[in-house]
Design goal:
The protein is an alpha+beta fold and about 575 residues long. It is built from 22 helices and 14 strands.
């Protein structure tokens, strides 16, 4: 019995041991399985993060590529052959004065005086143009020259990023930072074409902003260095620099430098009609009419249908009094060029050429066309520099001028003025002599509000009288002078340039009883010694001196009485 119990106990012990082993093995396998699951989870998470990161990187690369394509198509595939600088248009000779005249119309204060005789009442016209309902389209900006593609041979290619950064600063009007950036590049590469051009543009913009002539002159030196000196960059930069040099130098009163730049432009771009015309206009503006004539003749051989150039050549020939040759060229421009057609000076020169050729009836027909185009107020009044809203009359009554008191003072001093005029008048040569060697048909005391001190030394009392007459002494569009009309002479019809002044005629010595006959518009008057008359020079005039003696006059230009003080200050010389 004891033996059996012992055997059963041993069996039960063995069973429990086996169960313990099995449970231990099961728990160990479960731990292993759990560890494997954890490893798989970690690997899965790592894999997911990897794929997420990879897609983020791909997305960023795609965005960068899109920006790159946008930049490429916007700048590199755009035509940049035309410089972004201001390509100067062929302008009319009188455009600057018209702007000053328009500017001067503001702030007008009334100087009321009764209307002169024979003035027709003005019709009040109001223009109320309908506003356009069409949406305004935004103008596409021209590509900036410094953003032009960098070719493999471009000497500036190593500095591409720095140059583009400096140009962006310039575009953002950060001129000081842009200038510093261009200077940093030029320290490393002094001949950098784009940096030299960028610096010149930056300096000119700074000069405009600060209204500094010194900065502008510095900019001109850089434009000159690019355009006229040794330059290793592309021709587009040289052309752009020369255009700026021509414009800016002309604005600074440096006509010779402007012409030099235009001559270089024409040599670089022989087929460019605009540059060639600008050079011809430059010669005219600088008074080099012989060069202008030669240039426009050669120009018309290359550009046979350029009617604008025909008109300009006609003007030069008119200035040389070659009216027969000038007339067909002037009329060709008027009939065939829109720019010439709206410029009153060509109608004036063509009309005067017709008059000189004894074809006055045709000249008035031409003037009527100009009046219909609103280029002249009337066929008799033909100013090239016109100020609106001023009373218009050929002859003026002294009481209507507002200068009656000043004119009376002149009248009282007639004998003194006459003595001083005769002291400088040479009766033998019918001219004035200021130093015994040079002779002139006029003897200027004041010109464009500037006193001629040398001449006034010999005519001190007359000059003192004029100085006490501010509207005469400070008239920047007129003069005060002694002049004469030779005996038995006829001065054919002519007009003054502007309606912004009147002229006081003082007859100092008219010898014969017949006097001097003057026609203004359609009305004639006879002037005799001691008489004072007032006229508007912008009306057509004609003069006869049938006598045997020279007629001696003092001419005094004064501001038009309808101009305000502000306008008188703003209107500049012509």
């Amino acid at each position: 019995m004891a033996t059996q119990r012992t055997g059963k106990g041993e069996q039960s012990n063995e069973c429990s041991i086996q169960e313990i082993k099995r449970s231990t093995q099961t728990s160990q396998s479960e731990v292993k399985q759990e560890r494997l699951e954890r490893k798989r989870q970690v690997l899965s998470d790592q894999k997911n993060r990897y794929y997420t990161f990879r897609w983020i990187v791909i997305a960023l690369l795609l965005i960068i590529a899109a920006f790159g394509l946008f930049y490429y198509f916007n700048y590199y595939l755009t035509d940049v052959s035309t410089p972004p600088t201001s390509t100067a248009k062929v302008t009319k000779v009188n455009s600057a004065d018209k702007k000053s005249d328009k500017k001067a119309t503001s702030g007008k204060t009334s100087k009321k005086s009764s209307k002169p005789q024979n003035q027709s009442p003005k019709k009040s016209t109001t223009n109320n143009p309908k506003k356009s309902t069409k949406p305004t389209e935004k103008k596409q900006k021209k590509p900036r020259l410094l953003q032009k593609p960098f070719s493999p041979a471009d000497p500036d290619k190593p500095y591409l990023i720095e140059i583009l950064h400096a140009d962006n600063l310039l575009e953002a009007n950060e001129y000081t930072l842009a200038l510093q950036s261009f200077n940093d590049i030029l320290k490393k590469f002094p001949q950098s074409p784009r940096s030299l051009y960028g610096k010149a543009v930056t300096l000119s913009k700074m000069a405009e902003e600060k209204k500094s002539n010194k900065l502008m002159d510095t900019a001109l030196e850089f434009y000159k260095k690019i355009g006229l000196e040794t330059f290793i960059g592309e021709v587009d930069f040289r052309v752009a620099a020369l255009v700026e040099l021509a414009d800016r130098a002309y604005e600074r009163g440096k006509a010779a430098l402007s012409i030099k730049a235009l001559e270089k432009l024409v040599s670089l771009k022989e087929d460019n009609l605009l540059f060639s015309n600008r050079l011809g206009l430059g010669y005219i503006a600088d008074g080099k009419l012989k060069k202008a004539k030669t240039h426009f003749k050669n120009h018309l051989e290359n550009f046979t249908d350029d009617h604008f150039a025909s008109a300009q050549l006609g003007y030069v020939l008119y200035s040389e009094k070659r009216y027969e040759q000038a007339l067909p060229l002037l009329l060709d421009g008027i009939r065939n060029d829109e720019g010439v057609k709206v410029n009153p000076k060509f109608y004036l020169y063509a009309g005067e050429s017709l008059t000189k050729l004894n074809r006055s009836d045709e000249s008035y027909i031409l003037y009527s066309e100009a009046v219909n185009l609103k280029l002249f107020p009337s066929i008799w009044q033909r100013p090239l520099f016109s100020q609106p809203n001023l009373r218009a009359s050929g002859w003026w009554d002294i009481n209507d001028t507002g200068y009656k008191h000043d004119i009376q003072r002149v009248e009282k001093a007639l004998e003194t003025i006459k003595e001083e005029a005769k002291s400088v008048f040479d009766y033998l040569s019918f001219s004035f002599s200021s130093d015994g060697s040079t002779h002139s048909p006029r003897y200027n005391l004041f010109l464009n509000s500037k006193k001629n001190s040398k001449n006034c030394q010999k005519t001190s009392k007359t000059c003192a009288l004029i100085e006490s007459f501010p509207e005469a002494a400070h008239c920047r569009r007129g003069s005060v002078k002694f002049t004469f009309i030779p005996p038995k002479s006829h001065i054919s019809s002519f007009v003054g340039l502007t309606n912004t002044k009147l002229q006081i005629l003082v007859a100092l010595n008219v010898g014969d009883e017949e006097g001097v006959i003057m026609r203004v518009a359609e009305e004639k008057k006879v002037m005799k010694s001691g008489q004072i008359l007032v006229l508007d020079e912008s009306f057509e005039q004609e003069i006869w001196n049938p006598g045997s003696e020279a007629a001696l006059f003092l001419l005094i230009d004064v501001w038009h009485p309808d101009l305000s003080d502000l306008q008188m200050r703003q209107l500049g010389p012509i």
